[in-house]
Amino acid sequence: MLDKTEMQKLDSADQQEPRLESRVIPLESGRKVIVRSEGNEEFVEVASPEGQLELKVRLTEEGPVISLESVRLEMKAEESISLKSRKVQVHAENEVSLVSDGTLNIGSEKDMDIRSPEDVWVTGKMIYLNCDPAVVQNPDNTQGTSDGSQVVAEKGD
């Protein structure tokens, strides 16, 4: 059993020297799981058979940080997938596609900016701009135009 003085020496040595520990677990696929610590941070990493880092979980004092590098990332949930953050960025080199078999809602509490150096296409049965949904949902409030389209008439018109 260590006495109090020896324990204090170990504690002070831990604070002065960075802790470097590592364990490697080989997998049948040739990948390796590496569990290591550096200073106050701990890491769980998965490396490909070629040694390329594919997954890294860094455990910091602020919380976990997850990094992925892969050919494709798939997420599937029976009920829902939620992202919540101060800032979310999506960047694709070729294409971004948002598709819903149900309703698709895009909203902002502040300005919304849609830009393209090319054409912008909006296609739908009816395109409503600056309309109150309560007024639009009342079919008695519409007026026909000479080209066959309908215009929503505001109350009092």
For the residues shown, what is the average pLDDT? 81
Strand order of the largest sheet: 1-2-3-4-5
The fraction of residues in strands falls at: 15-25%
The Rg value, from CA coordinates, equals 29 Å
The structure class reads alpha+beta
Separation, N- and C-terminal Cα atoms: 91 Å
- What is the count of helical runs? 2
Molecular structure report:
The chain is an alpha+beta fold and 157 residues long. Among the domains are: 18-70; 123-157, no CATH class. It is 11% helix and 25% strand. The chain has a 5-stranded antiparallel β-sheet with strand order 1-2-3-4-5, with no helix packed on it. A two-stranded antiparallel sheet has the order 6-7. The longest helix is centred in the N-terminal third of the chain and has 13 residues, at 4-16. The radius of gyration is 29 Å and the shape is elongated.
